[in-house]
Prior knowledge:
This protein is of the alpha/beta class. The strands form 11 sheets. A 7-stranded mixed β-sheet has the order 5-4-17-16-18-19-20, sandwiched between helices. Strands 7-6-8-11-12 form a 5-stranded parallel β-sheet, with helices on both faces. It has a 4-stranded antiparallel β-sheet with strand order 23-24-26-27. It is globular and about 75 Å long.
Amino acid sequence: MSIQSLSPISVSPNLGTANVPVRTDAYAEIWQESINDPEKFWLDSAELIDWDRKPTRAIDRHSETEWEWFPDGELNTCFNAVDRHVLAGHGDRTAVIYDSAMTGTQSKISYAELQDHVARFAGVLRASGVDKGDRVLIYLPMIPEAIISMLACARIGAIHSVVFGGFAANELVVRINDASPKVIVTTSGGLEPKRVVEYLPIVDKALKASNGSVRTVIVADRELIPGSAADYQGGDVEYLDWQEAEAKAQPVAPVPVEATHPAYILYTSGTTGNPKGVVRDTGGHAVALTRSMSQIYGIKPGDVFWSASDVGWVVGHSYIVFAPLLAGATTVIYEGKPVGTPDAGAFFRVVEQYGVKVLFTAPTALRSIRREDPELEGAGRYDISSLEALFLAGERLDTETYHWANDGLHCPVIDHWWQTETGWAITANPRGIELLETKPGSSTVPCPGVDLRILDDQGHEITEPGIEGNIALKLPLPPGYLKTVWGAPERFFSSYLKEFPGYYATGDSGFVDEDGYVFVMGRTDDVINVAGHRISAGAIEEALAHHDAVAEAAVVGVRDTLKGHRGYGVVTLKHGFEGDLDALQKALIAHVRESIGPVAAFRDVAIVSRLPKTRSGKVLRKTIRQILDGEEVKVPATIEDRSTLDEILALGTADPDVAHTGAVKTQIAG
Ligand code: COA
Ligand code: AMP
């Protein structure tokens, strides 16, 4: 493999200072070039990484809905993220900072050490029978082993699928059955502020209920948490201790793979309870993420970049693991919360301690800090002058939180919009190119490579500024965006490409203003964004409907001052139920937690005698949601029985901060 300079793209970043934007035409020129001549634009961008076989073409377009990025290129992502920095003489540079506010542990891993761990762990996977194309399920909390195992998979061309720790065994089963991994990499457990989450019993339960593809479970032992590989010996599945296996393993060199080879599968909630396995390719992913570090975040090799997310989410995949390391920066893996570990100054302590230059988190994290520490006294205790920008994503950034952070932190607060499917930002303020003026409520402008349009429900383009519609992206999607849905290419088509031929339907609605700024307003489907976590209303409904007492269930996403939104269930009971209703409500909440996991944060369920429906039997979820949010409601003329709304009205508003008085007016439309 050859070593190349890390920044061949000739853009001198105008990063601006504090909140003062720098106005040039750099962004507009780069964006235009990416749309006019994507072939040149992305081939130039491909120079940012090292290839075993350099691509001669950026894109092969097989049909309107099928394309391949860098079709004749070959590379290895792990080599690009680790080895090439060591070979370039940066082995001593810190690659990973591990900071556990839960255990008080802090450690640093240099690029050379990371290379050693990753090469050995790749050897462990190999010895467990994992080859190129095999799947490995990673079920780990925020510990360095998560990064090492993801990179080790990339090193041998294995396809990883990381599952977030807050999911229940049932969700693990769904993912095991869909991806059929040979190996699971896990640990004795994770630490939440008030409890220890033991992972091994969850894995054991999931294995007993799954399809039997898993041959080996590799366990990173955490001394503080009960359970180890030794406790599970003797069954059909082999359990290995990570440290013992790594000590014995032969280091493995990076295996070049086709640019089109799947890099990983990440499951995300769709409209049904069946999650979609988003598949990312290797070459497009590596190129796009490397480019994003300089162009969007303004990060150079050696800078400290901290994404306070979780490796189980797409933000964690891209910006805790791959992008910072591809760019030769230092990444932080933080095990803790913004508040309570130990206080609302936790994030600022990390910023000071490691000289974090760019922090990336979700608005809900800021809201939790604001609730505990409205005057930002926590930030005042630390020197956070290293912080040049705060990026936010995962949900809409409400203007109140934006102003609070912007006023209090003295650095640009940048909202950017993206999805599990896209892997990197769709719209952003590209501070690495130039810092554009911020408009509160807007996630700024489409990233280079993104051709964004607003479409009406019939698929006609809305060109008038300020008119809301469906946000769609003109095909082909940029490199790094999803390639397909694992095992279900037809689902890729039906979920994303069918609704508006020639476009990818984002599932979000919004508008573009007269300056080209994009405002994302919310989902058009029944996906609920709970504290920056994407939860399917359909999955909660399915869980409720499986309870013995429940006849029918409707779940809607209601507004929540802290978490943005949360699920709210309304159920009817099977005929003849005679038990205690309070106890049943508690049991239903526990049942959802057991089925989906604590991360669903499902706390509200109301029992009614009938659900409001149209004459054709469709549940009026939007009407239910509007009533619970205290909005003015326009009841569809097709309602079967208007009196069914009285019970919903009697529930009051879901948010105790929203007054109910007179806010709800119903009127029969038409
Ligand atoms: N393992 C096990 N349980 C977990 C978990 C994990 N990794 N993460 C969360 N949970 C549990 C929590 O302990 C909580 O359980 P409880 O009901 O017993 O209290 C429940 O899931 C709900 O969690 P959450 O809604 O996340 O609240 P929180 O107080 O744990 O955390 C935030 C608050 C703001 C820190 C967290 O929601 C967060 O980081 N959100 C941002 C998500 C994100 O990064 N999205 C990607 C875009 S940046
Ligand atoms: P996820 O796939 O979990 O990252 O969630 C993606 C969804 O979160 C998007 O479709 C949006 O609905 C929402 N989202 C993410 N970032 C933003 C943002 N900056 N502004 C508004 N909504 C956002």
